[in-house]
Amino acid sequence: MAFRKSISQSELAEGQSEADRERHATEYQPSRGGWFKAEARPEPGQDKDSSGGRRWGRR
Fold it and tell me: Which residue, 15, 38, 52, 59, is most buried by CB atoms nearer than 10 A?
C-alpha cells in the first residue's frame, strides 16, 4: 500500500486555466444555504444603460 501525497489548493489552482476557473466558480449564498454558481457581474465602470439596467434618478 502506498501513501498519497496531498495536493494543496494553490497547486491545484496553478494547473487550471482562467476559463476553467470561471466555469467552475461558486460563491457562498447564506440566504440559499450553500455554494452556488457565481452569477455574472457587471464590469467596474461599465455604463448601466448599455447593459439594459436602470439608472436611478435620471429621466
Answer: 38
